[in-house]
């Protein structure tokens, strides 16, 4: 087949596809069908150490990017009615992947706790004494007969950055899990329950780090 003819036919097919998409979009608009209204959410609570005064610790902590367990590796809010099923709300979504979102808030809270001289993010070039890595194991709404609860599960590992002996590098590893009932079965109350759960985990984590730092 003539190469120029092949190019012409491909170009013609592309033009037809573009016209078809435009027509489909116009039909959807004429039918009054609108795309779903997406609501985006983030966590909101005061840092546990907010307003704290006094000397800070001498060490520098770097908080690495957290991973997210496969069932929750999405910005959509996940809900469940039993132990096996996992579903997602299309119109209710987080502003970031759970691992990124929760790691940010834990770093913010540790920064205000006074445990460390500085708390740096994953892109920082500041030399660190300790490194905090982790993963979000659970972040879901559990629907129940009497209401719903926010469940948050996080596993973290605190490492000694300058320890040459690999067997001694892990300071501690621990999993945290909180289940907080929502005041009402609404998106706003559910996100408030998620915020309370992360705040509780943050307080536990700060206490454990302090015990292993002093």
From TrEMBL:
Gene3D superfamilies: ABC-type transport auxiliary lipoprotein component
Domain ABC-type transport auxiliary lipoprotein component intervals: 41-206
Name of the protein in its database record: ABC-type transport auxiliary lipoprotein component domain-containing protein
Organism name: Desulfatirhabdium butyrativorans
Higher taxonomy: Bacteria, Pseudomonadati, Thermodesulfobacteriota, Desulfobacteria, Desulfobacterales
């Amino acid at each position: 087949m003539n190469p120029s003819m092949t190019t012409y036919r491909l170009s013609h097919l592309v033009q037809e596809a573009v016209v078809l998409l435009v027509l489909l979009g116009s039909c959807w608009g004429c039918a009054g069908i609108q795309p779903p209204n997406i609501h985006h959410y983030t966590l909101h609570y005061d840092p546990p150490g907010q307003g704290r005064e006094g000397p800070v610790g001498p060490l520098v902590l770097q908080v690495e990017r957290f991973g997210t367990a496969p069932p929750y590796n999405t910005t959509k809010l996940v809900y469940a009615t039993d132990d096996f099923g996992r579903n997602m709300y299309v119109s209710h979504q987080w502003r970031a992947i759970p691992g990124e979102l929760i790691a940010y808030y834990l770093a913010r809270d540790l920064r205000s706790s006074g445990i460390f001289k500085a708390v740096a993010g994953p892109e920082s070039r500041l030399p660190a004494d300790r490194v905090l890595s982790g993963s979000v194991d659970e972040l879901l709404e559990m629907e129940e007969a009497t209401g719903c609860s926010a469940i948050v599960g996080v596993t973290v590992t605190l490492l000694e950055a300058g320890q040459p002996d690999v067997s001694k590098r892990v300071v501690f590893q621990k999993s945290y899990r909180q289940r907080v009932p929502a005041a009402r079965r609404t998106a706003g109350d559910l996100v408030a329950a998620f915020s309370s759960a992360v705040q509780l985990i943050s307080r536990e984590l700060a206490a454990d780090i302090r015990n292993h730092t002093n």
